[in-house]
Amino acid sequence: MSTYLPTIKQLQYLVALHEHKHFGRAADATYVSQSTLSAGIRELESLLGVTLVERSRRVVRFTALGDEVVAKANKLLREAEELSDIVQAAGKPLSGQLRMSVIPTIAPFMLPRILPRLKKERPDLQLMLREEMSSDAIESLQHGRVDCVLLALPFDTGEVASAHIGDDRLFVAFPKDDPRDPPDRVPPEMIDPMIEGGRLLLLEDGHCLRDHALAACNRAELRASASMIGTSLHTLVQMVDNDLGLTMLPQMAIDAGILNGTDVVARPVESEHAKREIVLVWRKNSPREADFKLLAEELRAG
């Protein structure tokens, strides 16, 4: 056995640099100074007797061996996290630090309602949040950067364990006095004419709600033909309010008041596909599975 072994901190610095490809951003992600991170990686290279990172003023490039070491470091860090999780799970339920990613079409609408109650009822829980799109969140979960993810299905999450939080209906949002606005609900046979007669406003690529909206319309081919793209649901609402077209919104956003201060009206879609499933997912066989199930119960109660 080698007398000198890499430290967890050194591996964390290396993995962060590989993820961000920038010393400053990697230092921010690991909550250390840039000089500390750089020194830690140099110490690791000296310890191993190899060059892992090629440095220049503008580019951070990993060597082929560096990429291999990062892959192994990710596995070691996940196992270290699991060791910590075993100890955490043996303590008080739903306590200590728990890192959760939440997708942008859920975070601003669900968290403000839930977090104050969690803080009051679970004072020993330190919930660390990061907002990420679904694909990035699942990657963070797989690499051990977060413990669980709150997102919407359908989405390819890979091999994970999950708990159902609830179904979130989809609505069509109309500008004021739009002639296509029905008095109550939007039957499926009305969707195609409404879309053909106006411009469909969608979120940019990367948002799973974009795919959920197209599935509700049963018009996947519209992905490339949407005339206008928004970066957030709030942006889409403003576009609709200014009579630039129609969009689809989840019920949780409407319940959270996203239409307040606008003349936009929203009607539910009468379609079995016009909903998304909100779930909490985590790595299979995690020692903290009981905690995640408790957290799912708290989220459902919210």
Explain how this protein is built.
The protein is of the alpha/beta class. It folds into 3 domains: 8-87, Orthogonal Bundle (Arc Repressor Mutant, subunit A), CATH 1.10.10.10; 99-161 and 285-301, Periplasmic binding protein-like II (D-Maltodextrin-Binding Protein, domain 2, 3-Layer(aba) Sandwich), CATH 3.40.190; 167-276, 3-Layer(aba) Sandwich (D-Maltodextrin-Binding Protein, domain 2). Helix content is 44%, strand content 21%. The protein has helices spanning 8-20, 23-30, 34-48, 64-89, 107-121, 134-142, 188-196, 208-217, 233-241, 251-255, 289-301, and strands spanning 53-55, 60-62, 96-102, 125-131, 148-153, 160-174, 201-203, 228-230, 247-250, 265-268, 275-283. The strands form 3 sheets. Strands 3, 4, 5, 6, 9, 10 and 11 form a 7-stranded mixed sheet that branches. A hairpin with a 4-residue loop joins strand 1 and strand 2 (60-62).
What pattern of helices and strands is seen along the backbone?
Answer: HHHEEHEHEHEEHEHEHEHEEH
Give the mean pLDDT: 84
- Percent of residues in beta strands? 15-25%
Measure the end-to-end span. Answer: 51 Å
Oligomer: single chain
Q: What number of structural domains do the residues give?
A: 3
Shape: elongated
The helix count comes to 11
Largest sheet: number of strands, sense, barrel closure:
7 strands, mixed
The secondary-structure class comes to alpha/beta
Q: What's the quick description here?
A:
The protein has helices at residues 8-20, 23-30, 34-48, 64-89, 107-121, 134-142, 188-196, 208-217, 233-241, 251-255, 289-301, and strands at residues 53-55, 60-62, 96-102, 125-131, 148-153, 160-174, 201-203, 228-230, 247-250, 265-268, 275-283. With 302 residues, it is of the alpha/beta class. The strands form 3 sheets. Strands 3, 4, 5, 6, 9, 10 and 11 form a 7-stranded mixed sheet that branches.
